[in-house]
TrEMBL record:
Species of origin: Tropicimonas omnivorans
Residue intervals of the Glycosyl transferase family domain: 237-353
PANTHER family associated with the record: GLYCOSYLTRANSFERASE WBBK-RELATED
InterPro entries, per database record: Glyco_trans_1 (IPR001296)
Name under which the protein is recorded: Glycosyltransferase family 1 protein
Length: 398
């Protein structure tokens, strides 16, 4: 157990960068959960945000005001500097203007280390749980703060384990980030033992394995709206299955399209809740040609996604790799059946709850979909991991 730090500084670069880009992802929710919890701790909470031309360092009072905006409060007006910064969206311009108004200091990039030493107490704990802003400049700056500790969460190593399914350049950037974390971190936090195994394998190749801790993420039971949100009416009248996530190669939507092509009529509906991603031109073309049994539903609010999850015959999760698999846990917490690929992280977190199927062919998936369509049986809900359990494990270490 580590001594309580003089202060904590949570990096909020990811949440601020996501403004205007739709509902929060799983990683976004983790950063938000840390913000909500660390503000309640007796240790003063500062925050650091990467801006277009530097960094905003927010003292505890500024961090609390920023949290109010991130959790739904109104943003202010863009100032002149934001309006003159090229490439900023309207949301980003308002955010950068507010950051300048709320910040204890706006720090130029070359002077980051000096500014952190000047404004933060010795023994500050820097916490980064968003895979963002883990640059050489930032980590080197924190290493220069007397008695500072650096804690970083690793959510997965998918860019290195499945490079062919990533955006161009993503594996190289991720490898460089992981190497920097391995060299600098005093603590690596892992969302699962499966992630820890993968990450420590890559850390060892890079030269140093930092001390690590496995702490499953909290999964609050989703609250289901009594009324059906604005969704296609067929979803209330016909059996449907849900696939949740960005339409990208790792999520393996191609398998589900093969399954639906092989099902006899009348078919259930396949509801795909997720935006189109990258390197998936063949799948996009097939979706463009798909009939009424396949619905693309991008950009849904959380309330609509939860309603779909609660009313689906099953959640379909044919993913080729996952670090945690939040949708599967949320579905299981609602008693919705889960049909999933055989991944170590699913066994770790869900045990025998899902129906596990191989990814080598659609026939068994089609047979399982047909069986579940006919039965319509629900499952006894599981009790998922809680944020209280997570922070009980983590807070004493950072």
């Amino acid at each position: 157990m580590s001594a309580e730090p003089a202060a904590r500084c949570l990096d909020l670069s990811r949440l601020v960068s996501r403004l205007g880009q739709g509902p929060w992802t799983g990683v976004d929710r983790v950063e938000a959960a840390y913000l909500a919890r660390l503000m309640r701790e007796p240790v003063p909470l500062w925050s650091l945000v990467r801006m277009r031309l530097g960094y905003a360092l927010l003292a505890p009072e500024g961090t609390h005001e920023l949290a109010g905006r991130l959790f739904g409060g109104p943003w202010g007006h863009a100032d002149l500097a934001a309006r003159l910064t090229p490439g900023l969206s309207a949301e980003a311009a308002r955010a950068e203007a507010d950051l300048r108004r709320l910040a204890r200091r706006v720090l130029p990039r070359p002077g980051l280390a000096r500014s952190l030493r000047k404004h933060l107490p010795a023994g500050t704990s820097y916490v980064n749980v968003g895979h963002s802003n883990l640059t050489a400049r930032v980590l080197t700056a924190w290493e220069s703060v007397p008695d500072a500790r650096i804690s970083a969460m690793i959510h997965d190593t998918i860019p290195l384990d499945l490079p062919e399914a990533q955006r161009d350049g993503s594996p190289e950037r991720f490898a460089a980030m992981l190497s920097r974390v391995g060299s600098a971190a005093d603590l690596a936090i892992y969302n699962s033992a499966a992630t820890r195994d993968d990450a420590e394998r890559h850390f060892a190749k890079a030269g140093r394995v930092p001390p690590g801790l496995v702490a499953h993420l909290g999964v609050p039971r989703p609250e289901v709206s009594r009324a059906m949100p604005p969704l296609p009416p067929d979803l209330a009248e016909r059996p449907f299955f849900l696939c949740l996530g960005t339409i990208e190669p790792r999520k393996n939507h191609a398998l589900l399209l093969d399954v639906w092509e092989s099902l006899p009529s009348p078919r259930p509906i396949l509801a795909i809740a997720g935006r189109r991603g990258w390197k998936n031109a063949d799948v996009f073309a097939r979706l463009d040609r798909a009939g009424a049994d396949i619905l693309e539903l991008p950009g849904l609010p959380d309330s609509a996604v939860t309603w779909l999850m609660a009313h689906a015959r099953a959640l379909l999760f044919p993913s080729r790799a996952e670090g945690f698999g939040l949708p599967a846990l949320e579905a299981a917490a609602l008693g919705t059946p889960v049909i999933a690929s055989e991944l170590p992280v699913f066994r770790e977190l869900l045990g025998d709850y899902p129906s596990y199927l191989p990814l080598t062919g659609p026939e068994r998936w089609a047979a399982e979909v047909s069986k579940v369509t006919m039965s319509g049986h629900r499952r006894d809900p599981i009790v998922p991991p809680s944020w209280q359990e997570h922070f009980n494990a983590v807070l004493s270490m950072m």
